[in-house]
Design a protein that fits this description.
It contains eleven helices and 13 strands. The protein is of the alpha/beta class. Helix 2 links the parallel strand 2 and strand 3. Helix 6 runs parallel beside helix 7. The longest helix has 22 residues. It is globular and about 75 Å long. Bound molecules: adenosine-5'-triphosphate and magnesium ion. The site of magnesium ion has 5 residues, from helix 3. The site of magnesium ion (MG) has 5 residues, from helix 3.
């Protein structure tokens, strides 16, 4: 008896996406089912190219087919991805599938470093990525991407001037540091900073993006409010060091996103500078800022802990030389890669909840 498409789909209904807790057929993740004699082929469309569960899902599909049709059938599975979004109906930037705010509370804990490395790791997985440097008074993204001497071009579109973002390492970038020399940015007034961010969101040609990361300034400033008032934000990532004072500030940062008026989901906490490791003694870990502050912050607030990044001299050097650490394929690169995968997973879980983030109204 010839195998039918329905029988193949029935078999695949036994495979669950471990994160979304539904079967792949119900989730619409199975496409192009084809049967030729004893050869079965289909495509699994993952929710992110950075999916760490790719091989597990593939194996489970193979097993489900074998369970139903025996080992004589030949299975050919193509794995692709289509990043999910809750922003398709957004009035501004509907082609940007996910807008992710990277925030901290305390300054200097590594928001910009984490943003740069997450961006590169996501892009290397195959995602389309952009970064907005929302730190108008202290932009660091141009240096971290080695583009501080580049200037974006402008184009006219429907009588409006649009900025074309700079591209580096396959990532689209926009920062005030690309428009004005750094020493000028300092004297900007608050409202001007807000309008700069609105321009980066509204008057910049981002095109289609899977992830647009927003590197926020420290604290809970007007810029944070401008962001959530201008676009629906998919979620926020809180960066902290394990140190007590950093945790206290991070808790405030986290609480800001969760205020009922703002209501941006917190995707998780990243613990940066979790421990110091000398490069020549990679097995030695020194917990100079204390231990597990980030894990506890996440637990206390009932949000995921996304991962820890050690304090390593090469991470600082990579930032200063404009070549993000994750490009180097060493141990620290691996830490950022895993972090990017964990974040991409949390974004997919958040999107599956189908709850929209609303733009914050000013009263
Ligand atoms: N894991 C790390 N290991 C080594 N150095 C790091 C690490 N993370 C960040 N740094 C360094 O610490 C300094 C502060 O990092 P970064 O600029 O990313 O922090 P920030 O939170 O964006 O700061 P700000 O609040 O000023 O925007 C930089 O010099 C950076 O290179
Ligand atoms: Mg910064």
């Amino acid at each position: 008896m010839a195998i039918t498409k329905e029988q193949v789909l029935k078999a695949l209904r036994n495979v669950e996406d471990p994160d979304l807790k539904k079967d792949l057929v119900t989730l619409g993740m199975i496409e192009d089912v084809a049967i030729e004699g004893n050869k079965i082929s289909f495509t699994v469309v993952l929710t992110t190219p950075a999916c760490p569960l790719k091989e597990l899902i593939r194996n489970n599909c193979e097993k489900a087919i074998e369970d139903d049709f025996g080992s004589e059938v030949e299975v050919n599975i193509r794995m692709t991805s289509n990043v999910t979004s809750i922003r398709n109906d957004a009035p501004l930037l509907p082609d940007v599938k996910n807008i992710i705010a990277i925030a901290s509370g305390k300054g200097g804990v590594g928001k910009s470093t984490v943003t740069a490395n997450l961006a590169v790791a996501l892009a290397r997985s195959g995602a389309k990525v952009g970064v907005i440097d929302a730190d108008i008074f202290g932009p660091s993204i141009p240096v971290m991407f080695n583009v501080e001497h580049e200037q974006p071009h402008m184009v006219q579109e429907n009588g409006k001037n649009m900025i074309i973002p700079i591209e580096q390492y396959g990532i689209k970038l926009m920062s005030i540091g690309l428009l004005t020399p750094a020493e000028h940015a300092i004297v900007w007034r608050g409202p001007m900073a807000g309008s700069a961010l609105r321009q980066f969101l509204g008057d910049t040609k981002w095109g289609e993006l899977d992830y647009l990361l927003i590197d926020l300034p420290p604290g809970t400033s007007d810029i944070h409010l401008t962001l959530v008032q201008t676009v629906p934000v998919t979620g926020a990532v809180i960066v902290t060091t394990p140190q007590k004072v950093a945790i206290a500030d991070a808790a405030k940062g986290l609480a800001m996103f969760r205020q009922p008026q703002i209501n941006v989901p917190v995707l998780g906490v990243v613990e940066n500078m979790a421990y110091f490791t000398p490069e020549e003694l990679p097995d030695n870990k020194y917990y100079i800022f204390g231990r597990e502050g980030g894990v506890k912050l996440a637990e206390k607030n009932g949000v995921p802990f996304l991962g820890e990044i050690p304090l390593v001299q090469s991470i600082r050097e990579s930032g200063d030389s404009g070549y993000p650490a994750v490009l180097k394929d060493d141990v620290t690169a691996e830490a950022f890669k895993v972090l990017a995968e964990t974040l991409a997973r949390q974004i997919a879980i958040r999107n599956a909840s189908a709850q929209q983030t609303k733009v914050v109204e000013v009263n």
